[in-house]
Design goal:
Elements: H1 11-21, E1 28-31, H2 32-35, E2 37-38, H3 43-50, E3 57-59, H4 62-75, E4 82-84, H5 95-99, E5 105-108, E6 113-114, H6 120-127, E7 130-133, H7 136-145, E8 151-154, E9 159-160, E10 166-167, H8 180-193
Parallel strand pairs: 3-4, 7-8
Antiparallel strand pairs: 1-3, 2-6, 5-7, 8-9, 9-10
Length: 194
């Protein structure tokens, strides 16, 4: 029910997705959170790397976005960030850094998630410029060695930005993890079938 009703999403996103589900709106592929699957051990890192982009709505083209924005304005439903597949600008980390053997480096975030190939450009735009590292000590070391060339996220959700800013601390216990819902549903299904 939570997943079907987009619990934890902004009201404007819920409204658009509900309208799409009822056939009122077309051209919507889904939210970023719906379109990716991530192993539990990388969930916090990927969710941190994506941040608010988890609620972005993926569409085919910019033409659909123009129609969807007009719909939101006319109905006064608020704002939504749309990601047209046709406009995606993939990002990447330089090969020399991707292939280097940094202590604690796990990989580029986009390579740690699963998604339909159709969304490759969108996902590379969102996650292609972020490396996942095991802990903050190793993350700081990687950042220094690479001259802060790209964004780094740890498994605990600490972030080192190219500008040098480091964000970390404890994650609120009540934070709604949009990426874990699918795994929780699968686990509940498996448990119920036993």
């Amino acid at each position: 029910s939570m997943q079907k009703h987009y619990e934890g999403f902004q009201n404007s996103v819920k409204t658009v997705m509900d309208a799409a589900g009822k056939g009122t709106l077309s051209g919507i592929e889904g939210t970023v959170a719906e379109l990716i699957r991530v192993d539990g051990k990388y969930s916090t890192a990927v969710e941190t790397a994506l941040g608010g982009a988890l609620q972005n709505v993926v569409t085919e083209t910019e033409e659909e976005v123009k129609y969807l924005i007009a719909y939101l304005k006319n109905k006064r439903f608020g704002r939504v960030t749309f990601l047209p597949i046709s406009a995606a600008k993939p990002r990447s980390i330089d090969r020399e850094y991707r292939e280097a053997r940094f202590a604690g480096a796990i990989g580029v975030a986009v390579d740690l998630v699963k998604f339909d190939k159709k969304y490759d450009g969108v996902m590379r735009a969102l996650l292609g410029g972020t490396m996942v590292v095991d802990n903050v000590d190793n993350a700081v070391a990687v950042a220094k060695k690479t001259g802060y060339a790209f964004r780094i996220v740890t498994l605990d959700g600490d972030v080192i930005n190219p500008q040098g800013a480091i964000t970390g601390g404890s994650k609120k216990a009540d934070v709604n993890n949009l990426l874990s819902r699918e795994r929780e549903l699968d686990a509940a299904d498996a448990k119920q079938k036993k």
